[in-house]
Amino acid sequence: MEKEKENGRARALIPIGVFLVIFLGAGIIFGDFYAMPAIVAFLIALFAAFLQNPKLSFGEKMKVIAEGVGEENIITMSLIFLCAGGFSGAVTAAGGVDSTVNLGLSLIPAHFVVAGLFVIACFISVSMGTSMGTIAALAPIATGISEKTGFLLPVCIAAVVCGAMFGDNLSMISDTTIAAVKTQGCEMRDKFKANFFIVLPAAVVTIIFFWLITRGASYEVGTDLEYSMWEVVPYLVVLVGALIGINVFLVLIGGIVISLAVGVAAGNIAVSEMFTVVGDGVTSMYDITVISIIVACIVSLVKEYGGIQFILNLIRSRIKGAKGAEAGIALLTLFVDLCTANNTVAIVMAGPIAKEISDEYGVDPKRSASMLDIYASVGQGLIPYGAQLLSAATLTGLTPFAIIPYLIYPVLMAVCGFVSIFIRKGRTGGKRA
Fold first, then answer.
1. What's the rounded Cα separation, in Å, for the pair 360 and 188?
2. From CA 96, how far away is CA 89, in angstroms rounded?
3. Are 410 and 376 in contact (CB under 8 A)?
């Protein structure tokens, strides 16, 4: 059995196959990739994992998954998810989202409106840590800009989606960032810096693209865009605090306290509702927290049965050195996201495998975390059955396929990622002893 584990066993991957068949099959049959809740599909996959390998007793399998779930990164990641949810709930109730949106729009030059919409979406998504929240906040604005300028609505909403994916990839409180950092064992600020310089050229080209195709018209934002700088402060505190290296828990808890103080002072949050708004935010993160735990259970059993080793051996046979390892991590993550239609779940699933690869080939953890987050966001920003495009289409009355032709940023992000892998100077890496 030990020899089989060392060589790897393809059949150990059956639980992952069960998840993909059930999740994708339900999406194809019902025409809705959210008809089957991911947590249900993962629970079925976990049941399939328990049915495998009769040489291990039920008690031994429980011990394996307990060790997997109790791993430090899984516990830390789950707690950060909950803290991030609490901050999101508090700052939203305090009026931070509306003020941030209105502040950004009030600063946009009239001739720069659609490109500016992308920039504002970038800032808001980095601040909020959620692409879905950014799309929901800015979709009505994109519709209004389209109506008043005559530009195609798909162009305007594409600018919002592109900016939303920029922040989803980079935000300090994004669940994708949290998952990527904790599975790879690096600091958030290190991952942010490495990731930012990879995608910066893509963002610059995207700004130029939207400016060029919309430079012939202007839009008057009006005078009704009310905002309060105090309500924007919690976002700035979290962003700056995370960048300078303050412990993420302290940053998020500080953000919650400041948000509540601002909300109460502004009259947006009643004193009696302070704990309720935080609790609502925490509750909103239950799904991804529970999914992370169940995925950790599945991965621990798959690893015990030799499935992870099989994948590693398969990848090893096709890559050489650190650059090849980074490319392998990128393609693996992209493939998993295309299958799961959820970039956070894709990172949670691919993360342990990416960690094994990066350790063996000497890939810097901040690089492997960046590849995970970038290529999960690339897939999520382009697939027509992903929550982001489905939400954007629903809010604007379009179809995802009408928006996709203008989603230049995810494509450029993928290109920049591979360019950064193959032209980067320095150690090319090699297989570690």
1. 22
2. 10
3. no
d(Cα 371, Cα 50) in Å, to the nearest integer? 31
Task: Confirm if 353 and 313 have CB atoms less than 8 A apart.
Answer: no
pLDDT, tens digit (0-9, with 9 covering 90-100), for 4-50:
555 578 888 898 889 888 888 888 888 776 678 878 988 999 999 99
Pairwise pLDDT comparison (302 vs 100), residue with the higher score: 302
Return d(Cα 246, Cα 240) in angstroms, integer: 9
HSE-CB for 306 with a 13 A CA cutoff? 15
Is the predicted pLDDT of residue 398 greater than 50, yes or no?
A: yes
d(CA 196, CA 204): 12
Q: What is the pLDDT of residue 428?
A: 43
| Residue pLDDT, tens place only, 241-274 | 766 767 778 888 888 999 999 999 988 899 999 9
Percent of the chain residues topping a pLDDT of 90: 29
Task: Record the tokens describing residue 400, joined without a space.
Answer: 């995802």
Q: How far apart are the first and last CA of the chain?
A: 24
Question: For residue 148, what are the contacts with CB-CB under 8 A and spacing of at least 6?
Answer: 219, 220
State the average pLDDT over residues 369-388.
89
Can you tell me the distance from the alpha carbon of 344 to that of 332, in angstroms, rounded to the nearest whole number?
A: 14
Query: pTM for this structure?
Result: 0.72
Q: Which amino acid does the sequence have at 192?
A: F
The answer to whether residues 46 and 15 touch, using CB atoms and an 8 Å cutoff, is yes
Q: How far is CA 150 from the centre of its chain?
A: 33
C-alpha to C-alpha distance for 133 and 284, rounded to whole angstroms: 12
For residue 136, give both structure tokens.
Answer: 């929901």
| Residue of 243, 91, 116, 101 whose CA lies nearest to 177 | 243
* Amino acid in the structure at residue 145: I
| Of 100, 122, 134, nearest in space to 231 by CA | 100
Encoded tokens for 17: 């196959």
Q: What is the largest CA-CA distance in the chain?
A: 72
Please state, in angstroms and rounded to a whole number, the distance separating the CA atoms of residues 393 and 295: 30
CA dist., res. 369 & res. 150, Å (int): 41
288 to 23, 315, 343: CA distances (angstroms): 16, 28, 11
Amino acid at 9: R
What is residue 33's predicted lDDT score, i.e. its pLDDT?
67
- State the number of CA atoms in the 13 A half-sphere of 209 facing the CB: 20
Round to whole Å and give the CA distance between 70 and 46: 17
